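FAQ: What does the model actually see?

It sees only this:
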Amino acid sequence: MFPPDISRLPVILLRLLETFQMALAGTFIGIILSLPIAVLATRDFSPHPVVRFLTKGLVSFCRTIPDLIWALIFVVAVGLGPFAGTLAIIVDTIGFCGRFFAEAMEDVEKGPQEALTALGASRTDIIASAVVPGAMPAMIATGLFSLEKATRGSVVLGIVGAGGIGVELQVALDLFNYAQAATIIFVIFVLVLAVEQVGSALRARILVSGK
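And it is asked to produce this:
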């Protein structure tokens, strides 16, 4: 594996960018979809206990199946490439964020909600004006954790044909080109480390501003 082979570094970096784009797009869309799902999974704002039960079941189902299996399912459904990987990350993000978003909404202080209820505010107004803003710091932190998780996971998804740098890593290993595999592993490490450092810095700022 040493010294690493950097002859295909430009191609590897393009694949690395594709991997990060998959993680970013999948996480962003998954977070957007998780918001209404989380509302329906809360005790106070779900329109009916059956709806809450079914929604929590959907979140648990998304979380139970590993993202690698979701990638295999979507590769069969939509074909090889980053689109399948992005869909797998979306579903995995819904399972991760849906649960923690719901818990954050249930833990929000009840005082502002009761005040808005006394003023005649609708359920939608209470959610938009009191619940979501109160849970926002926790939801942002969860979203950042989800992006870190998706960045690591998107590397593995490429091994089953779901796009990204995992394809390059699998080819290098199949051809016993361990020097090139070392280069790929190193750039993956740099990407994951960068995302984790940025996420940690943002969470620290959120914690300080929340105090």
